[in-house]
Design a protein that fits this description.
Blueprint (H helix, E strand, L loop, with lengths): L13 H42 L7 H24 L15 E6 L7 H12 L3 E8 L2 E9 L9 H9 L3 E3 L20 E8 L2 E7 L7 H14 L5
Antiparallel strand pairs: 1-3, 2-3, 2-6, 4-5, 5-6
Helix pairs in contact: 1-2, 1-5, 3-5
């Protein structure tokens, strides 16, 4: 059965979807920050109560008391580490790089219902730093959307081939430290991050971004939802 519109897949209109996804991203980051602050507060209380208990303890401190204090200190330290990992304390914002390349919007595959075009535009519009979207299928480049590199087609290298063989998502949040980054000649030379999302053993969705660590946890869910929609049309 052909695709006759996003509604058949249980999807809202695109504007509503993008609004909800962006709101979910903000909520996700806010929840992590709040949880981190709560953990730091709990660790401070734990340290303070342990110190107060030791200072005002009367008589000889027994072994059981010492073990309890040690457990409180250990749990407080774990809470503190968790809190620091989740609270954004004046984080250094990664810089966006101007990608040099050619703006392309082409589909080399029958797409009468516009699903593939919708998918690529949705990804670019909903994840601000994703600037390049490609779909590779059975040795052919069937979709290119956004800024592209020198090669007009996807030339599979070891990284892409391994991702296809394992059929597992491959994400390089900082591409510059990857020795094999030179295989991505179909992406702009200054691409900062790459995501390869296999659709089948012979096809994959490839995303390039202009910023280090551009994809949040909620974005992965959105990308997964899109790939589930298009995987049946890309063999």
């Amino acid at each position: 059965m052909g695709f006759v519109g996003p509604a058949l897949f249980g999807l809202r209109p695109e504007t509503d979807r993008l609004t909800c996804r962006c709101a979910a991203r903000a909520d996700d980051e806010a929840a992590r920050t709040n949880a981190g602050r709560l953990a730091i507060g709990a660790s401070v209380v734990s340290f303070a109560s342990t110190l107060t208990n030791r200072l005002f303890a009367s008589g000889e401190v027994v072994d059981a008391h010492s073990r309890a204090d040690l457990m409180c200190v250990a749990s407080g330290a774990m809470l503190l580490l968790y809190g620091i990992a989740n609270v954004q304390i004046d984080p250094r914002e990664e810089e966006t790089v101007d990608l040099e390349g050619v703006e392309v919007s082409e589909i080399q595959k029958s797409d009468p219902d516009g699903l593939l075009g919708w998918a690529s535009r949705s990804i670019i519009n909903s994840i601000p730093n994703v600037r390049s979207v490609l779909i590779y299928e059975g040795g052919k480049t069937v979709l290119r959307e956004g800024i592209m590199g020198e090669s007009p087609v996807v030339v599979p290298g070891p990284i892409l081939e391994k991702a296809l063989t394992s059929e597992e998502k491959t994400y390089f949040a900082r591409l510059e430290i990857l020795p094999g980054r030179f295989e991505f000649t179909y992406l702009p030379a200054e691409t900062q991050a790459v995501l390869i999302q296999p659709l089948s053993p012979t096809s994959a969705l490839i995303l390039g971004a202009d910023k280090v660590r551009p994809i949040a946890s909620v974005d992965f869910g959105w990308i997964q939802a899109i790939t589930q929609r298009i995987s049946q049309y890309v063999g």
